[in-house]
Amino acid sequence: MLAAGLLCVAYGILIEHHWYRLRRYRLDILPTGAPAPLSVLHVSDLHFLRRDRRLKEFLASLPPADVTVATGDLVGEPEAFRDVALALRPIRGRVASLFVLGSNDYYAPRPLNYLRYFRHRRIGRRRLVRRGPAAELVALLEADGWRHLRNVRGELDVGEPGSAWEVVGLDDPHIHRADLRVAGRRAPGQFGMAVVHSPDPAPELAALGWDLMVSGHTHGGQVRLPVVGALVTNSHMPRRIAAGLIRLGRMRLHTSPGLGTSKYAPFRFLCRPEAAILELRPAPAVEEEPVHLRAGRVRRPTGRGAAW
Question: What residue spans define the domains of the chain?
Fold first, then answer.
């Protein structure tokens, strides 16, 4: 039994921790009649360490996309913020490159008792931690053409007349920096995308009418067991939807399992690190059934689906 456990730990550290993959999803959610399909490359939770050659090479191998979105926890140690900017440079989107920050960008990571993830944290308690390189990272990424979506909403010109997107980005909800007051929709007729580090505000954003939300933070659980699934996700969302694509009302939510882990927990089990391509296509036109009028009654036939 002990030998089996040690083999699982070795597998999680030496193999799956860096066993990167790219997943593809097709979403027919653009407005009917919108121009050609558009691709969104979603990366999250890089937790990038200095001289992380394998992750840098994987990022450089990713296919080009129209829009690239990075949903926070990009640095794994404060000294790596320059390495992060260089690693992200090859995956900038053709139309736009958008990002939000996570708690590990604002604060330096520190060793943590893993059992704390299974306990409810006391509201209001704050740990004394060292500040991270958030300002320096933002400056480097913006100099490279990335747009920081820190509690802002705006219009994104995707390059085709009449096809602008409405986009909102929220600061990290996990550390109480998100401001939902900016998230009300102003152009519900446009396609709307929300960018957030944590999936926690998904129910509110779905109720506000956003079409697509991209998030990370959960690491997909990082450690998953057969049948049981994710053990913990550090999120208020149900563990069974800790990663992947789900539907909340009319909104699609894609939660990335991320590409990295904390430097103090370099381990994954049955939860491979991944990036995702979301191919967005126009929704199929819905043909209304004809209405037949007879003797004053209505009868339906029976028998038969940016500029910021």
Answer: 22-111+128-284
**Nearest Cα residue to 256 out of 66, 60, 69, 58:** 69
Query: DSSP per residue over 48-90, as a string?
Result: B-TT-HHHHHHHHHSPP-SEEEEES--BSSGGGHHHHHHHHGG
- As a whole number of angstroms, the distance between CA 246 and CA 229 comes to 16
Least confident of 85-99, 113-127, 257-271: 113-127
Each residue's pLDDT tens digit, 72-93: 999 999 999 999 999 999 999 9
Which residue(s) pair with 299 in the sheet? Answer: 292
Kind and range of the H or E run holding 266: none
Burial of 218 (0-12, 13-18, 19+ CB in 10 A): buried
Residue 167 to residue 98: CA distance in whole angstroms: 10
Give dist(CA 243, CA 290) in Å, integer. Answer: 42
Task: Say if residue 304's pLDDT is above 60.
Answer: no
Contacts of 158 (CB under 8 A, 6+ apart): 38, 66, 67, 95, 96, 164, 165, 306
DSSP single-letter state for residue 129: -
**C-alpha count within 13 angstroms, C-beta hemisphere, residue 265:** 17
Query: Residue 235 in contact with residue 215, Cβ under 8 Å?
Result: no
Are 100 and 148 a contacting pair, CB within 8 Å?
Answer: yes
Chain-centre distance of CA 6, in angstroms?
32
Phi, psi of 5 (to 5 degrees): -65, -40
The DSSP secondary-structure symbol of 100 reads: E
- Which CATH topology does 22-111+128-284 take? Purple Acid Phosphatase; chain A, domain 2 (3.60.21)
